[in-house]
Amino acid sequence: MKPKPRTYKEDGSKRRVLVVTSVQAEREAVLRGIKQTGGIDVLVVGVGLAQAAASTAMVLSSASYDLVINAGIAGGFPGKTDIGSLVLSSEIIAADLGAETAEGFCPLDQLELGTSRIAADVEFVRWMEQALQHQGISVTTGRILTVSTVTGTQETAEELIRRVPEAAAEGMEGFGVATAARLQGVPVLEMRAVSNFVGPRNRAAWRINEALQTLEKASSVLTEVVR
C-alpha cells in the first residue's frame, strides 16, 4: 500500500515546502520530478556550508514553510550505499567542525561549544523512505556528512568513517541548510543521489547524469506533500 504523507497543516491550509540545491543542474532535476511548483519552491543556494546557510536563512526569514529539503547529488560511502541510489538523512553532521588534537579530531560537541549534529525530521524521513521504495527507488537512510573539502583520498575517507561509522554519504551544504531551518523552527531533511564513492578522486568514474535521474525520480514523490 502506498504510504500517506505527513499532514503538516491541521487547518486545511496548503502546505509549503522549500527545496534548496547547490547548483542549477540539481534544481532542474528536482523541477522535472515535481512537474509543477505549486506549494514547492526550488531554489539554488550555492556551494558550501556558509553560502547555503546564509542563503537559506534569507529565504526563511521572508516566507513561511512547513519543511526544508536540501536536495542534490553526493558521494556515497562504499558498503553503505550504491552509485545511482538515494540517501535520506537520519542526521546531518558537520564532519570537520571541531578541533585537531594530539589524540585526534575532537568534534564541537565534545568541546562543549555547540553541536555539529542536527537530526532530520523523523516522521517525514520515514514517510519518504516508504514512498521512494514504493516508486522502486533504492534508498538508504543514514547519517549524511557535511564537509568543507570534498574527500579525495582513501586516507580521508577512512578518517571520516572513524569519526562517524554510520555515515552513508557526504555533501557540502546540508549542515548549513539544517542550521538555518533549525533557527526558524522548520523541520529539515537532506536527500542525496549518489554519483560516486567517497575516496580517491576520480572524476572519470563519476556518474552524475545517473544521479540526477535518480534525484528527478525521487523528487516526484514530493508532490504528495502539498496536495
Automatic annotation (TrEMBL):
Show the GO cellular component annotation of the record: cytosol
Q: Which SUPFAM superfamilies match?
A: Purine and uridine phosphorylases
The EC code for this enzyme is 3.2.2.26
Q: Write the record's keywords in alphabetical order, separated by commas.
A: Glycosidase, Hydrolase, Menaquinone biosynthesis
What domain of life? Bacteria
HAMAP family cross-referenced by the UniProt entry: MqnB (MF_00991)
Q: What family is it from?
A: Belongs to the PNP/UDP phosphorylase family. Futalosine hydrolase subfamily.
| Name used for this protein in its record | Futalosine hydrolase
Q: Which organism is it from?
A: Thermoactinomyces intermedius
